[in-house]
């Protein structure tokens, strides 16, 4: 035990490392308390509800749609019939036993007519939910109505109607009361303020205790303690970030948010994951429905969702599964950051390793999206940690120009076993999402061309990650395919993420409508290949438009989408982002630790640019690039030898800095020029636009209107989303 600590000759040298572990335990305790608070809030179920409407033209109740949405939530929609504005909905909500609700929460969407709420039990209260001009499609207007003590039977009666005088109904539209639920907590924030003070105190004291302890450690004890500290820090930051998004007050309670996302459309990201996991637990395989394996998903997130539902002890408890999925994402992220800290301590001095690790812990993680995007930072950190570990022992002397051999000059060729963890981490990435494949192929080719037999490693890893999934899909009625059948859809939908004069919108609905018009199944590998060919034809037909598309997405990437997701710290601006990007560019230009820099920054150069052409998810798919940028930039910025190397090559350093500066400064100005130059965008110098099935000028049609939207839906049996 004594060999683990640097000799000091006093008792404090042996006692001080305990401070590091005390700090870790304090941070873990704070994370556990904060995460536990996030689950409280809205009641999980109601026992019953009833409603009635006036008859209209002899057809009773055709103007109001009522849906129960689980977790004590309802949705009311007045459809665009002639007399719908005269109708009212009467509800009787019976609460389960326990703590009575304190608030009735209402949220509407869009700028429409006001709604009036009557409570027969306390007639003096008659609140009005007013419209919110300019907020159509956003969160809309919210109203929190404090409730008096309810009767002994726990029954709440209310009537909701368009407000008196609101006789003009939106033509062909709807009045949508998006959310109605009862909450137990108040929104005074007093308890939250107390926890913020506690967290601030821990933030001030724990790093000091941790640093006092770890600086007196050495060897494996230092690495293990750094890994444990990174694990605890990541959990605490994740809990704080989730609290910032899912306010445990009455409005953004985590369970309520999980209920909202768990009941999204069948094609919704979270809904697909939970559906796959639910079918797997019921012995039907990873399928969206019996005999229907997913065409746009790899198996990783479905397996993780199955574990989340297993922990919820019910394959139909989608709310509990969503909450557990967020917790699993946070746990995997913490474990990955711990692995990165361990690898960093084996490569860099302790101070630099801990500084980079702490910066990565505070980056946006998108944990508030309980879907595959939330697990990608953990997978990316695992790959970065494996890459750092691969370079252990290479020294800090500035060597590192031997990119082709995979090691710096003068270092013997690495044994094949050193490459296994990195390729394994890449395989884990592919199990969840396949966008890392081009980068994996490129780096493997550069590394192993001189030793071709080593190319068997990535090939075997790739087959281990994809063959079982291909066989599984084929066994459950789907086509045999090693990855997804959605590359064509991503290419087609990605064409419309910038303003354009064609009829298409960036939506799966438009993709499937287009595929149907072509007579092709858009979910099949053949359909995906057809869509990819048509998208490629569109790129070549309008090369100027393609240049503008890439430039527009590039600028949005650098101006903020790279930092997409919830974060506790302000997002860096374009200038700071460009400065961070200049650091690895300088290292590559002057030949300083090129291999290590590439292993840290490769998602920035080999993953993010793919989404400049295909669907980018409004920045959701860029979170791995942010991690790579910060890891590569800070690791070099805190290295004194890096600046000495810059002084030895001032010409190359100045040229690299100039190119990066011109890119950051000139790209937005070039985009604005091309935006006002339609002739450049829509000229077709090589191919005839008439031969492109995607070239259709006009106005995008409205979404199809379903008669089901105008039906009165009876309250179903116990909801699978709330579990009662």
Entry summary:
With 724 residues, this protein is of the alpha+beta class.
Question: Count of DSSP helices?
Answer: 23
Tell me roughly what share of residues is in helical segments: 40-55%
Shape assignment: globular
Annotation, overall tally of beta strands: 11
Low-confidence stretches: 5-9, 43-62, 133-139, 186-191, 396-406, 702-724
Mean pLDDT figure: 78
Tell me about the largest β-sheet.
Answer: 5 strands, antiparallel
Rg calc: 28 Å
Biggest β-sheet: strands ordered side by side in the sheet: 3-4-11-6-9
First and last CA, distance: 54 Å
In words, what does this structure look like?
The chain is an alpha+beta fold and 724 residues long. It is 48% helix and 8% strand. It contains 23 helices and eleven strands. The strands form three sheets. A five-stranded antiparallel beta sheet has the order 3-4-11-6-9, with no helix packed on it. Strands 5-10-7-8 form a four-stranded antiparallel beta sheet, with no helix packed on it. The chain has a two-stranded antiparallel ribbon with strand order 1-2. 44% of the residues are buried. The C terminus is likely disordered.
């Amino acid at each position: 035990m004594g060999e683990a600590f640097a000799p000091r000759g006093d008792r404090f040298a042996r006692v001080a490392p305990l401070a590091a572990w005390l700090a870790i335990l304090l941070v873990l305790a704070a994370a556990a308390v904060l995460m536990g608070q996030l689950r409280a809030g809205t009641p999980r179920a109601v026992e019953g509800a009833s409603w009635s409407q006036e008859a209209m033209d002899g057809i009773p109740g055709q103007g109001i749609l009522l849906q129960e949405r689980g977790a004590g939530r309802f949705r009311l929609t007045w459809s665009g019939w002639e007399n719908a504005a005269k109708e009212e909905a009467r509800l009787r909500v019976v609460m389960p036993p326990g703590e009575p609700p304190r608030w009735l929460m209402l949220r509407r969407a869009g700028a429409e007519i006001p709604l009036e709420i009557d409570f027969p039990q306390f007639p003096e209260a008659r609140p009005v939910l007013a419209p919110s001009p300019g907020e159509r499609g956003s969160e809309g207007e919210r109203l929190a109505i404090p409730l008096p003590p309810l009767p002994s039977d726990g029954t709440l009666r209310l009537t909701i109607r368009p407000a008196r005088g609101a006789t003009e109904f939106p033509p062909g539209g709807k009045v949508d009361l998006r959310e109605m639920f009862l909450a137990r907590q108040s929104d005074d924030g007093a308890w939250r303020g107390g926890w913020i003070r506690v967290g601030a105190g821990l933030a001030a004291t724990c790093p000091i205790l941790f640093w006092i302890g770890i600086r007196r450690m050495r060897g494996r004890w230092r690495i293990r303690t750094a890994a444990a500290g990174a694990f605890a820090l990541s959990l605490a930051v994740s809990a704080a970030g989730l609290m910032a998004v899912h306010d445990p007050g009455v409005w953004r309670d985590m369970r309520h948010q999980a209920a909202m996302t768990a009941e999204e459309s069948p094609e919704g990201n979270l809904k697909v994951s939970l559906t796959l996991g639910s079918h797997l637990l019921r012995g039907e395989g990873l399928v969206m429905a019996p005999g229907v394996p997913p065409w746009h998903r790899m198996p990783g997130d479905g397996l993780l969702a199955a574990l989340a539902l297993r922990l919820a002890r019910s394959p139909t408890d989608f709310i509990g599964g969503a909450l557990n999925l967020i917790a699993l994402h946070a746990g995997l992220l913490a474990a990955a950051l711990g692995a990165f800290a361990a690898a960093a301590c084996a490569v860099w001095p302790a101070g630099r390793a801990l500084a980079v690790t702490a910066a990565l812990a505070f980056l946006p993680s998108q944990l508030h999206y309980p879907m595959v995007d939330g697990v990608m930072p953990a997978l990316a950190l695992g790959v970065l940690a494996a890459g750092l570990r691969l370079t252990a022992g290479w020294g800090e002397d500035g060597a590192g120009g031997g990119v082709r051999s995979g090691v710096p000059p003068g270092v013997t060729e690495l044994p094949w076993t050193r490459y296994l963890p990195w390729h394994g981490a890449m395989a884990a990435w592919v199990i969840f999402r396949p966008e890392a494949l081009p980068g994996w192929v490129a780096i493997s080719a550069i590394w192993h061309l001189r030793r071709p037999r080593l190319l068997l490693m990535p090939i075997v890893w790739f087959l281990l990650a994809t063959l079982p999934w291909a066989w599984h899909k084929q066994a459950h009625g789907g086509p045999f395919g090693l990855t997804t059948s959605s590359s064509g859809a991503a290419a087609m939908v990605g064409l419309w993420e910038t303003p354009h004069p064609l009829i298409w919108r960036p939506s799966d609905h438009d993709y499937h409508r287009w595929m149907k018009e072509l007579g092709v199944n858009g979910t099949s590998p053949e359909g995906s290949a057809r869509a990819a060919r048509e998208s490629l034809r569109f790129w070549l037909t309008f090369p100027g438009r393609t240049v503008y598309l890439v430039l527009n997405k590039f600028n949005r990437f650098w101006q903020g989408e790279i930092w997409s997701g919830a974060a506790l710290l302000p997002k860096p601006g374009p200038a700071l982002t460009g400065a961070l990007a200049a650091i690895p560019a300088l290292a590559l230009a002057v030949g300083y630790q090129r291999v290590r820099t590439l292993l840290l920054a490769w998602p920035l150069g080999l993953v993010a640019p793919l989404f400049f052409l295909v669907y980018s998810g409004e920045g959701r798919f860029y979170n791995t690039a942010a991690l790579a940028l910060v890891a590569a930039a800070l690791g070099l910025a805190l290295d004194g030898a890096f600046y000495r190397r810059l002084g030895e090559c001032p010409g190359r350093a100045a040229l690299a800095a100039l190119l990066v500066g011109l890119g950051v400064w000139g790209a937005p100005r070039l985009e604005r020029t091309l935006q006002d130059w339609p002739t450049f965008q829509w000229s077709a110098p090589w191919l005839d636009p008439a031969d492109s099935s995607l070239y259709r000028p006009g106005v995008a049609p409205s979404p199809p209107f379903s008669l089901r939207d105008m039906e009165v839906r009876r309250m179903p049996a116990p909801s699978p989303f709330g579990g009662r």
